[in-house]
Amino acid sequence: MGDEDQAGEALxxxxxxxxxxxxxxxxxxxxxxxxxxxTYRVLGQREDAEDVTQEVFLAVLEKxxxxxxxxxxxxxLHRIAMxxxxxxxxxxxxxxxxxxxxxxxxxxDEPDVAAAKAEERExxxxxxxxxxxxxxxxxxxxxxxxxxxxxxxxxxGMSDGTVRWHLHQARERLRRAxxxxxxxxxx
Amino acid sequence: MNVEPExxxxxxxxxxxxxxxxxxxxxxxxxxxxxxxxRAREALARRRRVxxxxxxxxGEWWKAALPVxxxxxxxxxxxxxxxxxxxxxxxxxxxxxxxxxxxxAAEGDVVRAIVNPTDDxxxxxxxxxGP
Lengths: 187, 131
Known about the structure:
- The complex is a heterodimer of chains A (about 190) and B (about 130).
- Helices cover about 75% and strands about 0% of the residues of chain A.
- With about 190 residues, chain A is mainly alpha-helical.
- Chain A is elongated.
- By secondary structure, chain B is an all-alpha fold.
- Helices cover about 60% and strands about 0% of the residues of chain B.
- Classes of the chains: A mainly alpha (about 190), B mainly alpha (about 130).
- At the A-B interface, helix 2, helix 3, helix 5, helix 6 and helix 8 of A face helix 1 and helix 2 of B.
């Protein structure tokens, strides 16, 4: 983030502190996607993630006086999102968090391709369950959402080196699970 | 392991097929923003009401406390004369026994001082050893 962006962000946050509704709207618009990505990857349910995302921004409004303006805002916000989502996951009697796949076999898929896709899903799902929850989350945030190891470390309270080590372990296992079908079908 | 690993696009695609994407549709985005806006209304209004500086806060507190302090002072001033007595009517600050010990008591006072059980606390005041 450049100096100009940082100054703009500081000004926006000062306006939010003063209770300006338009500034708060802008803050939400800027960060909504990333916050939702975090809550969704922790909770695995869009509805639950929506609820927690709302709570995150309301928490920001309550806690903004404790935010240090000398530091970047996004990591602070993402940490709140991560903590809220983990708490929600622990405290709510969540429905079984089986994510809805967005890839029911496409109508045009050949039968063998459809079968390969189904097998891939099954193998991957099984391999994911063999990972620790932390490793699952790190893989999702890194490979699916594009967060860096430093950003993930900041959210989870661990060093970026530890994040990369978990990522390496998780990927090894997932790649091993997918290897046999890669020869049959490559997307 | 100090270098940031490259993204594994193949794995990412497979995971996305399994777990779905996290991109919000326009409808979802608007719905969430509206819900947040409604729920945040009160907190934002509270922020607009909160005094901005410590001096403002002290000023607010002082404005509220001043009438209470004035009323308390007035009440005290009105009640005080009922309890006040002229200095000549006040009992002597020094007790009988203290006068005896100091050698300033009249003869009859010595006996009164000795039989008065409350006087022992004043012995120390006259220069003797306390209890």
